[in-house]
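BTB domain-containing protein
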Amino acid sequence: MASCMDANAIAWITTKLHRIRWKIENFSKVAFNTKLDGPDFYLTSTCMVGLAFKKNEHDIFVYVCNKSNTEIRIQRELFFFSCNEEILHEDKDAHIFTLEKGHYINIMDRVQNRETFDILSNDALIIDLSFTMIVEIIKELHQSQNVTDPGKKLLGDFNMMKENSVNSNVCLQIGKELIPAHWSVLSSQSLYFKKMFESGMKERLQNSVILTDLSLGTAKKLIQFLYTADFVQGDDIRELFHLYSAADKYEVLELRTSCIHRIMSKATADNVWQILLFANRHDDRDFEWQAMHFIKSHSDVVFQTDGFKKFQA
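Predicted structure tokens:
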């Protein structure tokens, strides 16, 4: 029996987003109480942070600065290595750090044996950091909502992930447009992205993928399908051709099947020859068979059309 509620559901999502190594040369010559600025990088497509370092006679500090427009909550794993990859210090607790815009926060616990850092091999210290973002999503649940339909709930959760860019961990670039996404979704729904995710290609390491062969509209429909198993359909059959081609290249088999079904639902005596040529170009035998079946079923009118005359030419 379905249960109903009228409340706010709070979901906490944790996503391991970024690992960075920062090598500080001439460590012994870094002046006490002088902040040394490190690299800036993106945790997500909308969340930039920067690192900084400072030391004094008794301690060492590593700072993170939030350079985005929204408050960020993170956890971190921090290691200090020598040039010989000897672990000199590690912080792996589950403490959550809240980063306000423009503020530097020290993410270091107190180091032991501070004096050992003054005699480092090659006078260099390697800071190795892994960041996990903590995202709080508040979802309003109305009394009319049926909470026992797992299929609808799952699709709703995935759609919420697509619309919420804060916890994304990869950016898809189409021209100048950036679309935040999630590696877990891309690689689970697309064999193409799965291979990229597992191969260690530069796109995986940089968490950025440039799509040069798709229009923005086609890319958005592709991404929508990856998250929701559906897409908004227009009236132009050419849009479906473009989406089928994208599904074929990026190996989204369910989307390709859906495109075939929708294309055939728009088949007419005049355009079926165009559909047949398109299916043949992609060497899709099932698609070709469906087009040929349509031609056979409507042969009395199909062979009288301008489309057939163009096909013969």
